[in-house]
């Protein structure tokens, strides 16, 4: 582990930015270092043979930087499936907190590569020791909520766009397709008056549509990415600690104001003793998906790709954070 750590502290060509916010490497560490990428590759091959099993988290990024291909890899980003499935990956610090009960990557001076490596190794050993199903999302998360409610003798109404209804509604559900937030509000208020309905689901999607529109604006997207990259530096007041703030435009303020009004009107229409649950769900995944597409299509240089990967990790970690408010009307 030591020699590999030393090797990754050097780069080919001039150092544009140490990016110690993530690397943990300072410019002082690189003073007088003349090791080239070729030297790093040679040292790597002295330690790693064909049969060696590499263990890490999102190792494709490390191997891409080293310009090395290796067959035997245990990647904890793939080993521990994200609850949403697909290409989603859970951050290493989230896995460490959940399964190892410890906080990592909390330092102001950047990631500790040994700390990350130990966490990945322990997570891999947990999986090997406890079997392939260890750490997988509980089976009930894969079941449709209306089906669970129906089995308990409860009738539910799903009010959303057609694609969501097709994905989550069941035969026992009152499926009500809508095309706007105002329509969703009116339908939900009407269903709330039906004594036979025990559970009502609806979604106000104007905010998500706004984020999607912003992500599709290429010029604005590039400007935002440049700003985010500049934020992710080795300053003491790092972007990770403060979070990447959303730019509050007048359009966004109006959207949030309308959403607040709809929530208030829906709550006012509920009968007494109704439990009212507000879930924010995921954060801004539009920009996350856009970044993934950019990386998949390889529309950036190697240098830009490395920076975009770091921005993607930060934005994805923020998008995974959700809020939930619960209250009983009385």
Task: Based on the model shown, name its key terms.
mainly alpha; 50% helix; Nucleotidyltransferase, domain 5; 330 residues; two-stranded parallel ribbon; three-stranded parallel sheet
Provide structural commentary.
One of its GO terms (cellular component) is nucleus. InterPro entries: REX1-like_exo, REXO1/3/4-like, Ribonucl_H, RNaseH-like_sf, RNaseH_sf. Keywords: Exonuclease, Hydrolase, Nuclease. Helix 11 runs parallel beside helix 15 (285-296) and helix 15 runs antiparallel to helix 16 (302-319). It is built from 16 helices and seven strands. The strands form three sheets. Strands 4-3-5 form a three-stranded parallel sheet, sandwiched between helices. It folds into two domains: 2-130, 2-Layer Sandwich (Nucleotidyltransferase, domain 5); 139-328, no CATH class. The longest helix is centred in the last third of the chain and has 20 residues, at 250-269. Helix 9 (162-168) links the parallel strand 3 (156-160) and strand 4 (174-177). By secondary structure, it is mainly alpha-helical. The chain has helices at residues 2-7, 20-23, 37-47, 59-66, 76-79, 92-99, 113-130, 145-151, 162-168, 181-192, 206-216, 218-231, 239-242, 250-269, 285-296, 302-319; strands at 54-56, 73-75, 156-160, 174-177, 199-202, 275-279, 324-328.
Can you lay out the helices and strands and say which pair or pack?
Blueprint lengths: L1 H6 L12 H4 L13 H11 L6 E3 L2 H8 L6 E3 H4 L12 H8 L13 H18 L14 H7 L4 E5 L1 H7 L5 E4 L3 H12 L6 E4 L3 H11 L1 H14 L7 H4 L7 H20 L5 E5 L5 H12 L5 H18 L4 E5 L2
Parallel strand pairs: 1-2, 3-4, 3-5
Antiparallel strand pairs: 6-7
Helix pairs in contact: 6-7, 10-14, 11-15, 15-16
């Amino acid at each position: 582990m030591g020699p590999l750590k030393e090797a990754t502290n050097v780069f080919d060509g001039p150092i544009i930015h140490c990016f110690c916010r993530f690397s943990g490497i300072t410019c002082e560490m690189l003073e007088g270092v003349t090791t080239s990428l070729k030297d790093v590759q040679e040292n790597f091959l002295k330690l790693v043979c064909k049969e060696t099993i590499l263990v890490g988290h999102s190792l494709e990024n490390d191997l891409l930087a080293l310009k090395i291909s290796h067959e035997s890899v245990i990647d904890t980003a793939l080993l521990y499936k994200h609850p949403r499935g697909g290409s989603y990956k859970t951050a290493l610090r989230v896995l460490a907190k959940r399964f190892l009960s410890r906080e990592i990557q909390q330092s102001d001076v950047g990631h500790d590569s040994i700390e990350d490596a130990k966490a990945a190794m322990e997570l891999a050993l947990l999986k090997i020791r406890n079997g392939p199903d260890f750490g997988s999302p509980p089976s009930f998360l894969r079941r449709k909520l209306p089906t669970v409610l129906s089995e308990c003798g409860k009738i539910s109404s799903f009010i959303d766009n057609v694609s969501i209804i097709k994905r989550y509604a069941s035969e026992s559900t009152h499926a009500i397709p809508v095309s706007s937030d105002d329509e969703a509000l009116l339908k939900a208020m009407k269903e709330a008056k039906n004594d036979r309905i025990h559970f009502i689901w609806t979604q106000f999607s104007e905010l998500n549509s706004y984020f999607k529109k912003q992500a599709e604006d290429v010029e604005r997207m590039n400007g935002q990415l440049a700003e985010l990259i500049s934020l992710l530096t080795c300053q003491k007041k790092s972007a990770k600690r403060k979070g990447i703030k959303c730019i509050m435009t007048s359009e966004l303020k109006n959207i949030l104001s309308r959403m607040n009004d709809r929530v208030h009107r829906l709550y006012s229409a509920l009968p007494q003793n109704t439990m009212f649950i507000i879930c924010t769900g995921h954060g801004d995944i539009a920009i996350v998906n856009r970044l993934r597409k950019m990386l998949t299509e390889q529309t950036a240089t190697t240098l830009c790709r490395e920076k975009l990967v770091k921005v993607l990790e930060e934005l994805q970690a923020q998008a995974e954070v959700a809020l939930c408010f619960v209250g009983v009307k009385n």
